[in-house]
Structures are given as C-alpha cells and as structure tokens.
C-alpha cells in the first residue's frame, strides 16, 4: 500500500510521528515495483475504461439485466456530469440481474475469465456480490438504502480483451438460462 498525504502542517506532523511509531514505510523492492507499475498506469487505466464501457453497453442490452450502474452510459443519471469531470468511467461497474440471490450466485459461479474476489487487486477482471462480501455486515435495511440488493453484481473490469470478457458474461447468462433460472428470474 502506498499513497500521499496532504493537509495542515499540524496534521502532517502528527501523522509523521505515527508513521515513525507504527512503521508504514515501503521496503525498497515494493517501492521499485510501484515505480515500475506507474510507468504503465495510464495505459492500463485507459484499457480498463474502454473495456468497462463495452461491458456496460453489452449488459445494458441484455434481457436478463434489470439495470446497469456505470457513469459513462447515456442512461446513467449523472452521465453529463461524468462527461465533464472525467476522461473515462473507470473500471468498476455494477448491474442487477432479473431474479434474486440464487440467480446472482449462479451467474457469478458460471464465470470463467472473471475471478470471484472481494478486492480489486490488479489488472485481472473480478466479480463479486456486494451483499455477500463488502456489504455483508450491513443490515438488510441499510443495504437497501444504499442500493445493495441480493441481485446486484459488481465487476472490476481488467485489461483482458473486451470480446473475451463479453463472451464470458454471455456464457454465464447462458448457464443461468439453461438451468431454468430464467423462469425464476421472470417471477421476481
């Protein structure tokens, strides 16, 4: 983990003292890896933005998807604002499938290229169900207040080829449909 801190002089002095006490200094190898990775960061972020937009557009058109949350989709309520503030929509998006928890679980377990993981760790694409991972400790009421339903799936889109990512999603939707989950999804 690495970062920069900015703030009032008094805050920085306190933080520096805490850093000395607790450590928090990167070892030389980790620092070298960070510097090496920064050289390709712009290219990787650009690719993730492009891939995430293509994935979001695919999902938005799929009949088993209820809603897609991605700021660079025309349908997003803050699309115009996002266009003025950002050069890309980012690599993170979420979508809600028709159905419930069982359909969401079956969908993510049918993915092959997307890894099931709760943290966003690198250039690989990941999938998770926030209601079962990052938001699991919240009450059902608090989950619903923040829009986290049992059918919400979050994707961290990586740098793989967008066509491969979309093919993987198509495969998961086919698995969902062929196992008679489509009928259950239509009832919800």
Strand content: 5-15%
**What number of domains?**
1
Mean pLDDT: 86
Determine the N-to-C terminus distance: 42 Å
Spell the H/E element sequence: HHHEHEHEEHEHH
Looking at the structure, the CATH topology is Aspartate Aminotransferase, domain 1
Unreliable stretches covering 5 or more consecutive residues: none
Using DSSP, what is the number of strands? 5
Structural class call reads: alpha+beta
Task: Provide the gyration radius in Å.
Answer: 20 Å
| Spatial shape | globular
What helical percentage do the residues reach? 40-55%
Output the CATH homologous superfamily.
Answer: Aspartate Aminotransferase, domain 1
**Reported CATH architecture:** Alpha-Beta Complex
Tell me, what is the CATH class? Answer: Alpha Beta
Helical segment tally? Answer: 8
Task: Give a verbal description of the structure.
The chain has 188 residues and is α+β, with helices and mostly antiparallel strands. It has eight helices and five strands; from the N terminus they run αααβαβαββαβαα. It has helices at 9-22, 28-38, 41-61, 79-85, 101-109, 140-145, 162-178, 181-187, and strands at residues 65-69, 92-97, 115-116, 126-128, 152-156. The longest helix has 21 residues, at 41-61. The radius of gyration is 20 Å and the shape is globular.
């Amino acid at each position: 983990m690495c970062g920069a801190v900015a703030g009032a002089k008094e805050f920085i002095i306190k933080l520096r003292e805490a850093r000395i006490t607790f450590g928090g200094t990167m070892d030389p190898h980790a620092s070298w890896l960070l510097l090496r990775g920064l050289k390709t960061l712009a290219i990787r972020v650009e690719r993730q933005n492009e891939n995430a937009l293509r994935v979001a557009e695919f999902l938005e058109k799929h009949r088993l998807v209820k809603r897609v949350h991605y700021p660079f989709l025309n349908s997003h309520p803050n699309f115009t604002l996002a266009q003025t503030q950002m050069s890309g929509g980012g690599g993170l998006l979420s979508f809600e499938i028709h159905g419930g928890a069982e359909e969401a679980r079956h969908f993510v377990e049918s993915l092959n290229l997307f890894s099931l993981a709760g943290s966003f760790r690198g250039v690989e694409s990941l999938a998770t169900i926030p209601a079962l991972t990052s938001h699991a400790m919240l009450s059902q009421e608090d989950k619903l207040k923040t829009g986290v339903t049992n059918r919400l799936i979050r994707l961290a889109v990586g740098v793989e080829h967008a066509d491969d990512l979309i093919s993987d999603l198509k495969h998961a939707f086919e698995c969902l449909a062929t196992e008679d989950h489509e009928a259950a999804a239509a009832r919800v």
